[in-house]
Design brief:
The protein is of the alpha/beta class. The protein contains ten helices and eight strands. Helix 1 packs across helix 2. The protein is globular, with a radius of gyration of 17 Å. It binds the ligand O=c1ccn([C@@H]2O[C@H](COP(=O)(O)O)[C@@H](O)[C@H]2O)c(=O)[nH]1. Ligand LLZGTKA7 binds next to strand 8.
Length: about 240
């Protein structure tokens, strides 16, 4: 695997044509594309298929968070799209995570497509300690991420989403094949925006990130391809 294959670019847009154009430009520069709530709510499965036709792995980041039966149904609905990675929230609990992982396997077999990695979002990278306290979580961000990491691994998930700051803590409670998907990536000098727990791409990879999720530092650059290339080069 080339270091740049670890980079998935977040295409947070409501415009399918724009997403397809950027995916074409970034093909070969980064490893895949991430389509999330903004894109999917506007462009739906048809938009997903158009980006997928560009021929790169797609991370479908819809962060399912509901009761087990509903999450299983949502996974059945998106399974024919054959995403490489699919997100759910670990805070949906162990039964929901087990059902999600089982359903993804069953549906991939039925559709004759590879099973996606089902990965659990732990604590969003836009939250810090005071935000956790505001929602009644008195543990530290690190302790809470480690607890959810262990729960996700024991519930059959393939990996988890955490900030670069918790990579070592997550690794300590999971086995090496458990995938660590890491947003909150900011090259030196980039605006953090709404992200509160950030590191540079190089630091995140050195700490052990499997996948780097990077949006605005690429998509909002005056030259997105050059920005992506500079990030990829920093990992080499
Ligand atoms: O904890 C999380 C989970 C998901 N995300 C998503 O990653 C990208 C990050 O985009 P940037 O522009 O690089 O901030 C975005 O699509 C989020 O939905 C996250 O940031 N944090």
């Amino acid at each position: 695997m080339k270091p740049s294959d670890r980079i998935f670019c977040a295409l947070d847009t409501t415009d399918t044509d724009q997403a397809v154009a950027l995916a074409r430009e970034l093909k070969g520069v980064v490893g895949g594309m991430k389509l999330g709530l903004e894109f999917y709510c506007a462009c739906g499965a048809e938009g997903f298929k158009k980006v997928s036709e560009v021929g790169m792995p797609i991370f479908l980041d819809l962060k399912f968070h509901d009761i087990p039966n509903t999450v299983a149904g949502a996974i059945r609905s998106v399974a024919p799209l054959a995403p490489r990675i699919l997100t759910i929230h670990t805070q949906g609990g162990p039964e929901m995570m087990r059902r999600a992982a089982e359903t993804a396997k069953e549906e991939a077999a039925k559709n004759g497509v590879p099973t996606p990695w089902v990965v659990g979002v732990t604590i969003l990278t836009s939250l810090d300690q005071s935000d956790l306290q505001a929602i009644g979580v008195s543990d530290s961000v690190g302790d809470q991420v480690a607890r959810l990491a262990s729960l996700a691994a024991h519930s059959g998930l393939d990996g988890m989403v955490c900030s670069p700051k918790e990579i070592s803590l997550a690794r300590a409670v999971t086995n090496p094949s458990f995938k660590l998907i890491v947003p909150g990536i900011r090259p030196a000098g980039s605006a953090a925006g709404d992200q509160k727990r950030v590191m540079t791409p190089q630091e995140a990879v050195t700490n052990g990130a499997d996948v780097l999720v990077i949006g605005r530092p690429i998509t909002e650059a005056s030259d997105p391809v050059a920005a992506a290339r500079a990030i990829a080069d920093s990992l080499a």
